[in-house]
Automatic annotation (TrEMBL):
Residues 3-135 form the HTH marR-type domain. Keywords: DNA-binding. One of its GO terms (molecular function) is DNA binding. InterPro entries: HTH_MarR-typ (IPR000835), MarR/SlyA-like (IPR039422), WH-like_DNA-bd_sf (IPR036388), WH_DNA-bd_sf (IPR036390). It comes from Candidatus Borkfalkia faecavium. GO terms for biological process: response to stress. Pfam families: MarR. This is Winged helix DNA-binding protein.
Amino acid sequence: MDKTQLRDGLMRELRRMTKLDIIAGLREFVEGEIAALYCLNEAEGALAPSQLSEELKVSRARTANILRSLRGKGFVEMDISAGDRRKMDVRCTEAGRAFLEEKYTAVLRLFEAYVDALGEEDILQLTRILDKIVSYEEQVQAKTNRGGAER
């Protein structure tokens, strides 16, 4: 098989993967409201909206919209910062933690089903390959950030 066929096959399978429930469930934890709740829940104490924006790698305007929605649902609370009255502190509420736990449990069930379907050997091999992909991408990004050559 030549390099073009390998590349095209990889692209085709990755495209197919994006439509899977497991990817949709995981995507919630890396972007949008669930990702914001997850970051706030994992933080020790409150976060400023700007910190959340940096953590999520989204604009401050997008972060403000996410927080407005989460606040409306009772999943976060926002208070004026005691350290700097010009800033806000954001925290996950108990309702937010309960909602996050429900979502997290559903995603865990999906992943457990894949572990059962693929078995230990295939899961370990897939994990090794995914780690290799992430490591490669991190190296490329580090070179790009230092002004080095791109792919």
